[in-house]
Specification:
The chain is an alpha+beta fold. It is built from 2 helices and 3 strands. Strands 1-2-3 form a 3-stranded antiparallel sheet, with helices on one face. The protein is globular, with a radius of gyration of 12 Å. 15% of the residues are buried.
Amino acid sequence: MSHKLAPKIPSELKPCPFCGGKASETVGITGLTAIVCTNYTSCGAYVTFDNPIANFNSDFARAYWNKRGGK
């Protein structure tokens, strides 16, 4: 199976594209990988991807998050 993402997998997450806050990676109890904004008081974005590759592979979740950009 081929993927459209470049093979370089990011280790750092870009800031939240909604508020510019620091982003963090988390895995829910169902095993889904999510990227969350740590600015809980004014943003608190919680992003998952409707994609079976990114849902259960944190490398791809980080790559998709970083592909979206950030402030």
